[in-house]
Amino acid sequence: MHFFESKARIAAAPEAVWKHLVNTAAWPDWDSGVEGVDGTVVLGSTLKIRSAAAPGRTFPVKVTTIDEPRTLVFTGGMPLGLFKGVRTYSLAPVAGAAETDFTMREEYTGAMLGMIWKSIPDLNPSFAQFASGLKAVSENVSSAR
After folding, report:
1. What pTM value is reported for the model?
2. The CATH number of the domain where 136 resides is what?
3. What is the DSSP code string of the chain?
4. Cα–Cα distance measured from residue 34 to residue 142, given in angstroms and rounded to the nearest whole number
5. Which of 2, 79, 86, 136 is deepest in the core (most CB within 10 A)?
6. Domains contained in the chain, number
7. What angle do CA 15, 11, 19 make, to 5 degrees?
8. What separation, in Å, do the N-terminal and C-terminal C-alpha atoms of the chain show?
9. Which residues pair with 78 in a beta bridge?
10. 115 φ, ψ to 5°?
């Protein structure tokens, strides 16, 4: 299995972090790696994500799981399961604290994975940047209250 992953401990409750995670229109405000997102987070909807990691490309993903405020899953890829990417955002409350353990992980599968994997750039830096941006925006709002 091939994947990219980033984690962060965020000094805000999962409910506060969730509000920023699902507000995809604001992602470019706190993550310079996201150029834009078209669409809204609704189960079954398709989002179109533009990323600095792949300039000029748009990645359509389907919202396949929403478990507020714990899990958000986007799925994209090729027909017939030839190549599939499943990006999972997980928010876990930290016991005894108003904190959240955030994990962003994308797993890739499919018959064409071996060929396509070679052309995928290392997304770990952009995943870390996303986690860092989500942490900053969530903690700034949380500490301003």
Report:
1. 0.93
2. 3.30.530.20
3. -EEEEEEEEESS-HHHHHHHHH-GGGHHHH-TTEEEEES---TT-EEEEEETTSTT-EEEEEEEEEETTTEEEEEEE-GGGSSEEEEEEEEEEPTTSS-EEEEEEEEEESTTHHHHHTTS---HHHHHHHHHHHHHHHHHHHHT-
4. 23
5. 86
6. 1
7. 25
8. 42
9. none
10. -75, -45
Query: What is the spatial distance between Cα 112 and Cα 8, in angstroms, rounded to a whole number?
Result: 31
With a cut of 70, which residues of the chain have pLDDT below it? 141-145
**pLDDT per residue over 101-125, tens digit each?**
999 999 999 999 999 999 998 999 9
Please confirm whether the linkage preceding 121 is cis (ω < 30° from 0): no
Cβ–Cβ contacts within 10 Å for residue 124, how many? 12
**Residue whose pair of structure tokens reads 């999972």 in the numeric block:** 88
Q: Which two tokens stand for residue 80?
A: 């017939």
Beta bridge partners of 100: 10, 93
* Segments forming the whole domain that contains residue 43: 2-143
